[in-house]
Amino acid sequence: MYNRKKQLKSEAVADELRRKILSGGFPDKRLPRKDELTEYFQVSQKTMEAALKMLTAEGLIRGVKGTGIFVNGELPKDINLTHRLVMVVMPLSGHYYGDFYEGLREELLKTNLYPVSYHKDDSLFRLASVTTFLSAPIKGVLYHGLSYWRNPFLDKWRNLKSVVMDLFDAEGVPPGGAALVDYEAGGYLLAKHFLEQGRRRLVFLHHQLPEDVPMTPEFLKNHMPGLLKNGIRRAIREFGACPLQDHAVNLASGTEPLENILKKRYDGVICVSDHIAYWTGIAAERIGMKYPEDFFLSGCFNTPWSRNTVKPISSLDLNAPEVSRIAVELLNSGSSDIIKIKPRIVRRQSTGGPE
User: Fold this and answer.
1) Gap between the Cα atoms of 311 and 240, Å rounded
2) Pairing label, strands 338-341, 296-300
3) Is-above-0.90 flag for pTM?
4) Buried (b) or exposed (e) across 89-111, using 16+ Cβ within 10 A?
5) Which residues pair with 269 in a beta bridge?
6) What number of other Cβ atoms are within 10 A of residue 309's Cβ?
7) Nearest alpha-carbon partner for 113 in 141, 134, 90
8) Beta strand pairing status for 296-300 and 268-271?
9) Which residues are paired to 180 by β-bridges?
């Protein structure tokens, strides 16, 4: 199944040129020729054209036929526009994160802010250029809080405006504002949907945790699977159903572990991701089971893994556009509020839905 690349080369080139434009890096307001830029960035002409088209659409540059590429004359002539730059640190691979970033970028541009994106990678923060960037008078930082405990880089930059998005699984409170998905409410909604349809033996499937994960109560309290489980268990208590069972799965070992779980005859399977839900459906088919006839099945993130199947799978949509809107709003206001965004269920055939 198609999976978005980490970051398109054209986006990376556009980010670098945008940063240079807004920090006054072209004092004569003229960019190098297209072939010179292509050579400098070591990319194809098609990639360079896509990057320049992106900057033209943002109103930062204009091309004059037969003359060259110029910084838009409407930009203040002698003002450094570094204060409009926003450092965005988040995963850029995968359907969910790719779409999330595109929506976030659009929200920033609406308020005349310009993202400089970095793939969420520990090695990133060892780069001198990042330290230089964070030392500049930029607007602030938007970052995805998954595994923030691995590298709490903002501890050294508490003077910067910052907003964490989607999830924050480190101990304590975020250093700035927060636009977080209410995963506990999402787990509750999924379980309630199952239970209202008469399902009583629910199982929760999630990925195995890496060995370096700190298994502290604080981490487990903020960990995404833990939040989902809390919501599921709350719904189970309200309905008086069987206690929740949960299993960590490793898809690298094939579908046999999923087949063994399904043989225990649970009537509701809630998965931490659409990817696991998709392969659960494959495992069921291999042992002669069907959903929704034998069990209800749902995933999380509302990606093509749940939509592009013979029998579409219900999924928890995390409302990324609203997360992006609130995150940009918090950054612009400088607020340190923590706002939770409620996800919604997309009901499909796997839980008796309309599709």
Assistant:
1) 30
2) unpaired
3) no
4) bbbbebbbbbbbbebbbebbeee
5) 203, 297
6) 18
7) 141
8) parallel
9) 166, 340
- Give CATH for domain 183-319+344-351: 3.40.50.2300
Low-confidence ranges of the chain (pLDDT < 50): 1-6, 76, 78-79, 122
Q: pLDDT by residue (tens digit) across 104-121? A: 999 998 988 988 887 765
- State the Cα–Cα distance between residues 59 and 230, nearest whole angstrom: 47
Query: Phi then psi for 227, rounded to 5 degrees?
Result: -65, -45
CA distance 314 to 63: 47
**Residue boundaries of the structural domains of the chain:** 1-80, 183-319+344-351
Tell me, what's the pLDDT at 155? Answer: 83
Cβ burial of 322 (10 Å; 0-12, 13-18, 19+) is middle
Classified as helix, coil or strand, 267 is: coil
Segment 21-60, tens digit of pLDDT: 877 778 788 889 888 899 988 999 999 998 898 888 877 8
Determine the topology of domain 1-80 in CATH: Arc Repressor Mutant, subunit A (1.10.10)
